[in-house]
Amino acid sequence: MTELEQKIQMVNLAKSLFERGYTVGGAGNLSVRLDENRILVTPTGSSLGRLTAERLSVLDMEGNVLEGDKPSKESVFHLEMYRKDPKCNAIVHLHSTYLTALSCLEGLDVENAMRAFTPYYVMRIGKLQVIPYYRPGDINIARELGERALTGKAFLLANHGVVVKGSDLIDAVDNTEELEETAKLQFILQGHKIRYLTEAEVKDLENRGK
């Protein structure tokens, strides 16, 4: 994929997320690794529904702007995750409705905020770790995510939203959509007896993914 094709793909996927209600206003940001030394990230304050390829931000791994508009202030944690996890090639950060609602609940298991009840959650995500609350843009979000970058695919930012990794941008978006749907199902099932997957069933799914 050429760099221009990657930019067009980001614009199209971002617009799709916006039009389907996964994000509103100027919330959320996407990034993708262009090569070993550069990433592409959505600009600060930009609506995911109104991006243009020529205004996307290109940064080096130290955070210097190489082209495009000023990047999202949250590009700091994107960069830290790329630096810590060489296999991470794309990141989606959204304030999607059900995952953000989940992030506002007390008493979540910080090692896994959603116990598995569908095979798709296990195959796509595995577990959902919780990052403590920090104000948006706080450097501690980058520190926390960097420390956990090699331990999972998705991270719930308390009272904030979700951060999801992928092998490429399509994979990261697919992972995010599956995770949001799982959170939606969890709220729908509140008050009902849920048949959770057993440890053996989860292990079987994990083994099939190796």
UniProtKB/TrEMBL annotation:
> Which cofactors are reported in the record for this sequence?
Zn(2+)
Q: Which reaction does it catalyse?
A: 3-dehydro-4-O-phospho-D-erythronate + H(+) = dihydroxyacetone phosphate + CO2; 3-dehydro-4-O-phospho-L-erythronate + H(+) = dihydroxyacetone phosphate + CO2
SUPFAM superfamilies referenced in this protein's UniProt entry, alphabetically? AraD/HMP-PK domain-like (SSF53639)
InterPro entries in the cross-refs: Aldolase_class_II_sugar_metab (IPR050197), Aldolase_II/adducin_N (IPR001303), Aldolase_II/adducin_N_sf (IPR036409), OtnC (IPR050013)
Single Gene Ontology MF annotation = aldehyde-lyase activity
Where does the Class II aldolase/adducin N-terminal domain lie? Answer: 8-187
Q: What class of enzyme is it?
A: lyase
> What GO biological process terms are annotated to this protein in UniProt?
pentose catabolic process
Tell me its family: Belongs to the aldolase class II family. AraD/FucA subfamily.
Q: What does this protein do?
A: Catalyzes the decarboxylation of 3-oxo-tetronate 4-phosphate to dihydroxyacetone phosphate (DHAP) and CO(2).
**What's the name of the protein?**
3-oxo-tetronate 4-phosphate decarboxylase
* Source taxonomy: Bacteria, Pseudomonadati, Pseudomonadota, Gammaproteobacteria, Pasteurellales
